[in-house]
Amino acid sequence: MHRDNVPPQHSRNHAARGSRARLSHRGFALYEVLIGVTVFVIGVVALGRSVGNCITASGLTAEDGRVRQILANRMAEIQASPGVPDAAKEFKLDTGYGMVKLIQKTAPAQLTEEDGVELNGVNLVTLRAEWVKGGVTQSESVQFYVYRAG
Length: 150
Prior knowledge:
Layout: H1 8-80, E1 88-94, E2 99-108, E3 122-133, E4 136-147
Antiparallel strand pairs: 1-2, 2-3, 3-4
């Protein structure tokens, strides 16, 4: 059949079905927009939390680096000094992230050679840094040997 031979009533029904199809398609478009906005909002919230976690981690890394630098500096001072390190010493330092308590303890290493002869003049130094972060006590420590002939 040619289009010209289609009865007029059939054309009107076809046109009515087409407009209904377009109306229902507009309804789906609204749902699509709502779903898209929801997905976008969830993504933005997740991204915001990720950025917050990165900032927190960056601060903790900087704080940890500062404490490690304090320990390294004190270790260098002890190694460079000519005398036997102090048996016990305590310092309080302001790091910009809060107060850090640096505790130094020195004891004879009591090392022996393979034949049982004790090595004199070798001391074991322990440096411990303690600070409070978020109400929780944090600590970092390092141990090293210092030899002083004597």
